[in-house]
Amino acid sequence: MNLREFATKNVQRNAKAYFAYFLSSTISAALLFSFTMLIFHPDFKVSLFPQHIKNSFYVTTVIAYLFLCFFVFYSISVFLKSRYKEFGILYIIGASKKLVQKMIRIENMLISSVAAVAGILLGLIFSKILLAASGKLLGYNALKFYFPVKAMIITFSAFVIIGIVISTFCTFIIKEDKVLNLIKGTKRPRPEPKASIILAIICIVLLAVGYFLSVTSSIKTITHRIIPVTTMVVVATYLLFSQLSVFVIKLLKRNRNLYMKKTTMLWVSNLLYRIKDNTRMFFLITITSTVALSAIGSVYAYWRDKEYQISREFPQAFFFSNTYENKDEVDLKADFIENSLRAQGISYTKANDEIKFVIPNGDIDEVVIINETSYKKLASTLALNTIPFNERETIKYSSFSADKRKNIRLNNIKLEVTKESDKGILPAIYRDVNVVNYRDVYVVKDEVYERIDGVKYYFGALNVEDYKDTLDICENFYNNFESIDENNKLYNNFLKAYILESTKIAYGVLLFSTIFIGLIFFVTTGSFLYNKCYMDIIEDKTKYKQLNKIGLTFKEIKKILNIEIGVLFLLPYIVAVVHFAFAISALKYSLGIEITVPALQVIGIMLIVQIIYFFIIRKNYLLEMKKSLI
Amino acid sequence: MGILEVSNLSKVYGNKVLFSALNNISFSIEDGEFVGIMGPSGSGKTTLLNMVSTVDKPTSGEITIKNKNPLRLQGDELALFRRRELGFVFQDFNLLDTLTVGENIVLPLTLDGIPVKKQDDELNRISKILGIEDLLNKRTFEISGGEAQRTAIARALIHNPTLLLADEPTGNLDSKAAKTVMELFEKINEKEKVTTIMVTHDPLSASYCSRILFIKDGAIYNEIYRGDSRQQFYQEIIDVLALLGGSN
């Protein structure tokens, strides 16, 4: 029997012990595969989305891959640790370190490659079902099923590489002296976890700053803040479990009247070790759950809020603009819509006039100015009340007002900003296709308007009572004007009904993808916790049996276990919910999206599922425990 | 009427193949006695201790501890009975390594919701008797086996139990530590009048008892009382064990 045969037989004959490891490897392979498949999906084009969504998507991707690596390494180290005794025997009968390493390599290669294949199959089935389900739910096929060769290759090779890397680094995990100690039966002493007050304070500061930055972010700052805020919160979360929690429990212990009361002493002292021991796991679960929650929550909130968003960004049902020289083209388009509306018997209001693009003195961002006459026209199409103002004043219209300036200098004419309105009167017109920016609109008196130099544009706007009825007109429009627009880069066509429809589809895809990824994350962390729990129960059984002998009642054991399992199952999720609450409020403050209802829905669903899961595990745990008692 | 009355106690294990571990045993222990239980492996001495400590239920027979019948109690009532009336010392100490020595000792009082002040007073009293005042803030892995067993004894005694039950308390200790622990058992028995029952293999440890019950094949084989000399008592134990035969 050579070593290869020995290793292979080891796996074959000890299938039960290897099964748990194999299962977690398979799950991670399925996760890696599904995720990669989605990212490489031909219909999934991230580049179409605004910058802040792109950034969030990149952060999500990085965290997802890191999480996967951690997960694989974690399950391997747990698995290797559970085999210390076996390694001990091998060492004692004279196996060299190199030999043990080689054995682990062969084993790991075997398990990893089989797990990769199983994971790919599992992922294929899973994604097929989900893609079909999404088609049913969203009413159209958001993403089609495809045969992801690239994802298959990546998953398989990643797992083979992991197998090789692990066996090379396994000597870091298996320490020979520890192994020998274990076989001798000496218990490893567990010194009390220590916490550094400085790190605990850093944790609080990081959390506070991170939370503060996220609730105070605006449309201008959110893009730059996503990455630093995420980093801060990630570091703070690690410190929260490794330092702050230890610190708080120790403070609790110092209050002896509280600590030395009934079962409190037992669970508090145990919790100190539990949290410290599980720091990495808590950390991983919290971060991934936060990412999953935030991804699902924000996309869902956006998806729900899209009509309101679109109404704000595009006040009129139809809006066309172009440089003043191309005035005729705008009129042509507006006439086309007008005729179509008339043919369908839809009543409408119409306005057309000119606007100017100006860069205010001492500023970089362009603003749009309109004169009072066209302001009145626009307001009447939108059924808005006009606000009176005088020659030295201006009214600012902006749906995302970031700066709160008191006055503005245009062509060295100083104007006082008297009124601000967050209602839009013009859509976000752009002159340069590459710069999509929400421009603030300033209304000035006609005479002032004439005195200001700027790039002159012409617009035509039409509005109807219910823009959703005009989708077919929009489609006709695109069929008609596609060829005209081809050579002209300076036009703006805003057809609200069409925009709503395409946003629905784009965000539908995104929503589905995030839910898909989130679901995979929750399943994985769930299985993670399940494994953890069943490793703990072996230790707990002997412990509580002894305590029961000296008179700890089952009722008291139940009380302690409720808290301990509760912490294990709910603590990371509760922290994740808090993180999520702050992350999503950034959306509210920066983009003005209504988040309360969708956030509560997402949190509610997740917590309900998690609590049900907790109750199931707890019931089995207690049942198991009761059996082992007298 | 003794503090512990055992009458016609029998225990049969198994469903198809029946094995009788205890066979109609009756004895009584008076208040303040220090009784050792000895016998070869498989003689039923641990089964007997488990019955008395209410951890296991007999097939037939009666047990009375201080006029109370623990066999009538169920589940959690039984656990509470053990917590309040009995004190346990185990071979492998069974201390919790998440607690300090002091916290381990006061655990029975803490569980009963005794005020912290009273817990501290009791802890001081008991730790002085056992000579472990200096260890109270240490962790269980920082102390020796002998110290751990003294801690366990302190935990077993802090709530002034009716009966102290010890299962091979010196089984994991070296001879020096074993001697210290046995001297403490003797001292507690004499000074604090704690009724003690101890199961042991070791004749030397057993020689600290005031009386020894020998069990063989689930029945009482012999019973000897200690005279004035511990040395002589030890010799007598050796003699009985030799007669008893088999491995002790």
From TrEMBL, chain A:
<feature type="transmembrane region" description="Helical">
    <location>
        <begin position="281"/>
        <end position="303"/>
    </location>
</feature>
<dbReference type="InterPro" id="IPR003838">
    <property type="entry name" value="ABC3_permease_C"/>
</dbReference>
<dbReference type="Pfam" id="PF02687">
    <property type="entry name" value="FtsX"/>
</dbReference>
<keyword id="KW-0813">Transport</keyword>
<feature type="transmembrane region" description="Helical">
    <location>
        <begin position="505"/>
        <end position="530"/>
    </location>
</feature>
<feature type="transmembrane region" description="Helical">
    <location>
        <begin position="195"/>
        <end position="214"/>
    </location>
</feature>
<feature type="transmembrane region" description="Helical">
    <location>
        <begin position="109"/>
        <end position="131"/>
    </location>
</feature>
<dbReference type="InterPro" id="IPR027022">
    <property type="entry name" value="ABC_permease_BceB-typ"/>
</dbReference>
<feature type="transmembrane region" description="Helical">
    <location>
        <begin position="151"/>
        <end position="174"/>
    </location>
</feature>
<feature type="transmembrane region" description="Helical">
    <location>
        <begin position="565"/>
        <end position="587"/>
    </location>
</feature>
<keyword id="KW-0472">Membrane</keyword>
<dbReference type="InterPro" id="IPR052536">
    <property type="entry name" value="ABC-4_Integral_Memb_Prot"/>
</dbReference>
<feature type="domain" description="ABC3 transporter permease C-terminal">
    <location>
        <begin position="61"/>
        <end position="172"/>
    </location>
</feature>
<keyword id="KW-0812">Transmembrane</keyword>
<keyword id="KW-1003">Cell membrane</keyword>
<feature type="transmembrane region" description="Helical">
    <location>
        <begin position="20"/>
        <end position="42"/>
    </location>
</feature>
<keyword id="KW-1133">Transmembrane helix</keyword>
<protein>
    <submittedName>
        <fullName>ABC transporter permease</fullName>
    </submittedName>
</protein>
<feature type="transmembrane region" description="Helical">
    <location>
        <begin position="599"/>
        <end position="617"/>
    </location>
</feature>
<feature type="transmembrane region" description="Helical">
    <location>
        <begin position="226"/>
        <end position="252"/>
    </location>
</feature>
<comment type="similarity">
    <text>Belongs to the ABC-4 integral membrane protein family.</text>
</comment>
<feature type="transmembrane region" description="Helical">
    <location>
        <begin position="62"/>
        <end position="80"/>
    </location>
</feature>
UniProtKB/TrEMBL annotation, chain B:
<dbReference type="InterPro" id="IPR003439">
    <property type="entry name" value="ABC_transporter-like_ATP-bd"/>
</dbReference>
<protein>
    <submittedName>
        <fullName>ABC transporter ATP-binding protein</fullName>
    </submittedName>
</protein>
<dbReference type="InterPro" id="IPR017911">
    <property type="entry name" value="MacB-like_ATP-bd"/>
</dbReference>
<dbReference type="Pfam" id="PF00005">
    <property type="entry name" value="ABC_tran"/>
</dbReference>
<dbReference type="InterPro" id="IPR003593">
    <property type="entry name" value="AAA+_ATPase"/>
</dbReference>
<feature type="domain" description="ABC transporter">
    <location>
        <begin position="4"/>
        <end position="242"/>
    </location>
</feature>
<dbReference type="GO" id="GO:0005524">
    <property type="term" value="F:ATP binding"/>
</dbReference>
<keyword id="KW-0547">Nucleotide-binding</keyword>
<comment type="similarity">
    <text>Belongs to the ABC transporter superfamily.</text>
</comment>
<keyword id="KW-0067">ATP-binding</keyword>
<keyword id="KW-0813">Transport</keyword>
